[in-house]
């Protein structure tokens, strides 16, 4: 396994300040602290006791932040084996039974009907590979998006209602949207 020389730090909640290592992997870029802080400010009164699905877990920054801020359960999907192994090590350090890490490709995971309802879906796919479009379509087709579900998206382009309506069959609205450097991020809600 590649030596984990990079770190992210939990910025709020029960585990605030704890640092976790993660390995170098192609396309792996943890959500920056400023962006994570904005996201969790947006959902601060809604995340406690909720179920999160993190489809491109990577370093684990979003999953671990959700746990720290009171998520009841986080299901984390990661296809890179080194990143997956590292996530398992970090889960053991955190001593959390509320985090399930699955070694799978996101689209393969989404090809199976959901066995539970997710309150939040976190999407931070690799940029410039047109994966976001496929994942949104699959989430919609397979029934992962229920009324009231919120989806957090990171992309290299601005998310528009027009774009979302092409990929998602359910009625949706953009609740919040910002940009930080080259990263566009938003929170949408299924109506």
UniProtKB/TrEMBL annotation:
Listed InterPro entries: DNA_methylase_N6_adenine_CS, RNA_MeTrfase_RsmD, SAM-dependent_MTases_sf
PROSITE patterns according to UniProt: N6_MTASE
Transferase in keyword set: yes
Functional note: Specifically methylates the guanine in position 966 of 16S rRNA in the assembled 30S particle.
Identification of the protein by name: Ribosomal RNA small subunit methyltransferase D
Catalytic activity, as annotated: guanosine(966) in 16S rRNA + S-adenosyl-L-methionine = N(2)-methylguanosine(966) in 16S rRNA + S-adenosyl-L-homocysteine + H(+)
Top-tier EC class: transferase
EC number: 2.1.1.171
Organism: Candidatus Thioglobus autotrophicus
A Pfam short name: Cons_hypoth95
Gene3D superfamilies, sorted: Vaccinia Virus protein VP39
Keyword terms of this UniProt record: Methyltransferase, rRNA processing, S-adenosyl-L-methionine, Transferase
GO molecular function: 16S rRNA (guanine(966)-N(2))-methyltransferase activity; nucleic acid binding
Similarity section: Belongs to the methyltransferase superfamily. RsmD family.
């Amino acid at each position: 396994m590649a030596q984990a020389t990079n770190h992210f730090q939990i910025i709020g909640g029960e585990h605030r300040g704890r640092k976790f290592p993660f390995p170098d992997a192609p396309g792996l870029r943890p959500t920056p602290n400023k962006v994570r802080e904005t996201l969790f400010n947006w959902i601060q009164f809604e995340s406690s006791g909720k179920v999160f699905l993190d489809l491109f877990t990577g370093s684990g920054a979003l999953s671990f932040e959700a746990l720290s801020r009171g998520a009841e359960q986080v299901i984390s999907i990661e296809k890179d084996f080194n990143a997956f192994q590292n996530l398992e090590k970090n889960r053991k350090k955190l001593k959390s039974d509320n985090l399930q890490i699955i070694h799978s490709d996101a689209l393969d995971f989404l090809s199976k009907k959901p066995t539970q309802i997710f309150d939040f879906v976190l999407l931070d796919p690799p940029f410039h590979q047109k994966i976001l479009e496929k994942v949104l379509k699959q989430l919609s087709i397979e029934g992962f998006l229920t009324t009231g579900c919120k989806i957090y998206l990171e992309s290299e382009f601005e998310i528009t209602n027009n774009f979302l309506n092409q990929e998602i069959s359910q009625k949706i609205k953009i609740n919040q949207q910002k940009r930080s450097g080259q990263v566009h991020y938003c929170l949408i809600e299924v109506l």
